[in-house]
Specification:
The protein has 174 residues and is of the alpha+beta class. The protein has five helices and seven strands, in the order E-H-H-E-E-H-E-H-E-H-E-E. The strands form two sheets. It has a four-stranded antiparallel beta sheet, sandwiched between helices. The protein has a three-stranded antiparallel beta sheet with strand order 5-7-6, with helices on one face.
């Protein structure tokens, strides 16, 4: 996989069918970083992505966040990421600045590492100098992706999102 084949883009109507296929691999109803596991009208979700990146029309408790799709060869969505521009107390505990998802059929091929690296570049571009990335303690693949991008484990906390599980909190210096 060469970086020339991969681009990190904002969600676009032109890849609607591809995004629907991407989402279907997750069962269609689960949360996916990218359009927030959106259901319903695709155009409204795209509008929300654009608004949220500018900090406009945010739901209560949300922060400005940019959504990206990792696209191979200009047509295949292999992953999605969400870059939160700042941290709330909840995001500081669990959630962090960046969340990402790799299409199940494309996992274990190095795309997670590339997606996080490219999203870190976008974090630098908006002025962040240090980012928090979290994952479930049992998610060995994600922990490897984070460490592979310079993540240093700060601690583990009881997950609020997944009671009974632990979340790992990694900081990456930019």
């Amino acid at each position: 996989m060469s970086d020339a084949m991969l681009k990190l883009i904002e969600p676009t109507e032109s890849l609607r069918a591809e995004f629907e296929a991407f989402r279907a691999e997750f069962g269609g109803d689960g949360y996916i970083h990218g359009l927030g596991g959106m259901t319903g009208e695709f155009e409204a979700a795209l509008r929300n992505c654009r608004d949220h990146a500018r900090g406009v029309n945010l739901p209560a408790g949300y922060v400005a966040a940019s959504t990206f799709w990792l696209v191979r060869d200009g047509r295949a969505i292999v992953g999605t990421s969400n870059l939160r521009h700042e941290l709330t107390p909840f995001l500081l505990r669990e959630g962090g600045h960046i969340g990402y998802s790799i299409r199940p059929s494309e996992q274990r091929k190095g795309y997670g590492t590339r997606l996080l690296a490219m999203t870190l570049g976008r974090a630098r571009a908006i002025g962040l100098t240090r980012v928090l990335v979290t994952c479930a303690k049992g998610n060995i693949g994600s922990a490897g992706v984070i460490r592979g991008n310079g993540g240093v484990l700060e601690d583990e906390v009881q997950s609020v999102l997944h009671p009974g599980e632990m979340a790992q909190r990694y900081w990456i210096e930019l």
